[in-house]
Amino acid sequence: MADKVSKNAVEALQGRLFDGMTIMAGGFGLCGIPELLIAAIRDSGVKDLTVISNNCGVDDFGLGVLLAGGQIRKMISSYVGENKLFAELYLSGKLELEFNPQGTLAERIRAGGAGIPAFFTKTGVGTLVAEGKEVRDFDGELYVMERGLTADLSIVKAWQGDHEGNLIYRMTARNFNPMMATAGKICVAEVEKIVATGTLDPNNIHTPGIFIDAIVEGVHEKRIEQRTVRKAETV
Fold first, then answer.
1. CA distance 24 to 202
2. What is the CA radius of gyration of the chain?
3. Is the alpha carbon torsion for 74, 110, 99, 224 positive or negative?
4. Residue 135 and residue 37: Cα distance in Å, rounded?
């Protein structure tokens, strides 16, 4: 099998970025985001992007840095409440937004990765979510049709990976990364640790290497969006 390890994020994305492309970016909030690959995309200067991600980072971190550089044209998301710049750009008409219920977004990505072009769900029937979409009756209940999502490039973040691209995620990072890895024409992964091929227990692998085109190891900042702690008790 081919060794898919790149020396850094820039090398991993070389020849894979172009203006007007669609990118899926994994993570949930700031947990499990491919921050090194996002930074490399920012530094590349690529623009007019459509980005599919659960959220859009914060003002100075994660996908927020692509917003700050004016590189994103449209977001397909389910939550954007942590980013003031996002709100400013959207309300001024400088950013397009396709809002999705969170479970619907997850299923649209999973469906795209599985080769399913569309599916029906009850979520959103009778609301703005269903506007302009087909609504059909099944056994006396109304369902709205949602299209599967795919991308030119998926960027994901995992805990461990081997030289063939087999990946293991940890905890919250499993929310969107695994399904996005299957839904991109190309998938580049960044991991906290690269191990020798054959080291990972096959029973614990979440994304098989067949879905991964390149993998890069790096040190991650792992910010917390809103840190809330209990005040110290006075004695």
1. 26
2. 19
3. negative
4. 38
In 3-state terms, what secondary structure has residue 10? helix
Nearest to 214 by CA among 155, 130, 151, 142: 155
Contact 63, 34 (CB under 8 A): no
Provide the residue-wise pLDDT of the chain in tens; the chain has 235 residues.
678 999 999 999 999 999 999 999 998 877 889 999 999 999 999 999 999 999 877 777 888 889 888 899 999 999 877 788 888 888 898 889 998 999 999 999 999 999 999 999 999 999 999 999 999 999 999 999 999 999 999 999 999 999 999 999 998 888 899 999 999 999 999 999 999 999 999 999 999 999 999 999 987 766 666 677 788 777 6
- Domain for residue 128, yes or no? no
Amino acid identity for residue 93 in this structure:
G
Q: Give how many domains the chain has, as a whole number.
A: 1
The DSSP bridge pattern shows strands 151-162 and 184-195 to be parallel
- φ and ψ at residue 173, rounded to 5 degrees: -65, -10
> Which CATH number characterizes residue 28's domain?
3.40.1080.10
Reduce the DSSP state of residue 40 to 3 states and report it.
helix
Q: Is 227 part of any domain?
A: no
In a domain, 137, yes or no: no
Report which of 15, 59, 6 is spatially closest to residue 36, judged by C-alpha positions. Answer: 6
Task: Report yes or no on whether pTM surpasses 0.85.
Answer: yes
Checking phi first, is residue 126 left (phi over 0); if not, alpha (psi -120 to 50) or beta?
left
Containing structural domain, residue 102:
9-117+148-217
Question: Would 132 be classed as within a structural domain?
Answer: no
